């Protein structure tokens, strides 16, 4: 009975989801160690957009899937978006973006990019794991994403983190109209996933 009363009071008078977001998404910029290399982890800001676009161009053969105009609304101060980036010696080398859907209790990873010179060093894994951890702290039920059908390497990384294929989105990507693999991580099952590394 007391639990019902507390839940009712919180739902009526306190926006607990926004309080959780303010608490868990307000990270301090700091140095992290990834496989023996030091990187500077920070929340992305509008001023980082030119470098983010350049990282995308380096990954996608000179074409950036997201341009400046697409990134600007994503990086405005708001509680339904969360972007992180990694720098080494003041050079932006990787970033990840996500949208937070309270209604669906889903954290959707919208983009991940690691500069080719820094791939295969665990940066993508680290960033996706960070997003999963934040989604768990926010008590979300799922983390979702799309990945190119041809990007088998990324699919393997996501599978290693517990994501499961739930479907194919036909002609998903602009330009080449490549299909996307739709993948979802069920956070209710996450404790049972081997090698979840305490995320």
Automatic annotation (TrEMBL):
Keyword set, alphabetical order: Acyltransferase, Cytoplasm, Transferase
PROSITE patterns: GNAT
Keyword Zinc-finger: no
CDD domains noted in UniProt: NAT_SF
SUPFAM superfamilies: Acyl-CoA N-acyltransferases (Nat)
One function term, GO molecular function aspect: N-acetyltransferase activity
tRNA-binding found in the keyword field: no
InterPro entries tied to this protein: AcTrfase_RimI/Ard1, Acyl_CoA_acyltransferase, GNAT_dom, YpeA/RimI_acetyltransf
Residue stretches making up the N-acetyltransferase domain: 37-188
Gene3D superfamilies: 3.40.630.30
Family: Belongs to the acetyltransferase family. RimI subfamily.
Protein name: Ribosomal-protein-alanine N-acetyltransferase
Native source species: Apilactobacillus bombintestini
